[in-house]
Amino acid sequence: xxxxxxxxxxxxxxxxxxxxxxxxxxxxxxxxxxxxxxxxxxxxxxxxxxxxxxxxxxxxxxxxxxxxxxxxxxxxxxxxxxxxxxxxxxxxxxxxxxxxxxxxxxxxxxxxxxxxxxxxxxxxxxxxxxxxxxxxxxxxxxxxxxxxxxxxxxxxxxxxxxx
Amino acid sequence: xxxxxxxxxxxxxxxxxxxxxxxxxxxxxxxxxxxxxxxxxxxxxxxxxxxxxxxxxxxxxxxxxxxxxxxxxxxxxxxxxxxxxxxxxxxxxxxxxxxxxxxxxxxxxxxxxxx
Lengths: 163, 115
Fold this sequence. Notes:
The complex is a heterodimer of chains A (163) and B (115).
Chain A: E1 17-24, H1 33-44, H2 49-69, E2 72-79, E3 83-91, H3 98-101, H4 111-115, H5 123-129, E4 133-139, E5 143-151
Antiparallel strand pairs in A: 1-2, 2-3, 3-5, 4-5
Chain B: H1 3-9, E1 13-16, E2 27-30, H2 34-40, E3 45-49, H3 54-62, E4 67-70, H4 78-86, E5 90-93, H5 98-107, E6 111-112
Parallel strand pairs in B: 2-3, 2-6, 3-4, 4-5
Antiparallel strand pairs in B: 1-5
């Protein structure tokens, strides 16, 4: 994993911050490190606590999905004064039926993943729940791309718009 | 319920501790499924779990949970304790099962995170 490339942090938030993390599939020992680092970045920018929490949870679920299902993937983030945008792209098996995968409790995770406390079929619904905008695109045999936007205004309208 | 009361009521062994005894904990989340923690928990919750792995600490940290209780006296490995120290998460071990631990805390007024 490489973290926080190109981001120079200060609390003024007058410009945009971008960075990316490379995630290796199956590497449970480092699972969550990318999301934890992003959370630290968001906190260091002085972003409101509940917004940080939502962005961190959405990112963590996306990171876990790459680790559980894909060979490798990349998590990118763009932080602007208006929003936090997180893009997760993986080289994985892809999702055959996205509508089914979005249902709470539906999972194709193997038993060993469940023994680690994951794979309960809440990952994608949780990403959507914590995002103001949620987009998912998947090609079977190639991979999946998830894009999530968390707006930084606390009382934003129209959460979880499907696409 | 305060952290001190949780420790006393659950007869818990304190592995790491970063919160004063009088810190108020408003809700409880009891599960071995980490996505459930992320989906339903609130900050200012205690996580009660039988999953004594680093994943439990990492998940608690992401969800702003500062107190984790491992049930049935299960002791975590060193990397899990080190992570709890690094993330400043108070880590407790209760000899009780998850069912009994939840029953004790419920009886004394602690409630499940509201959905």
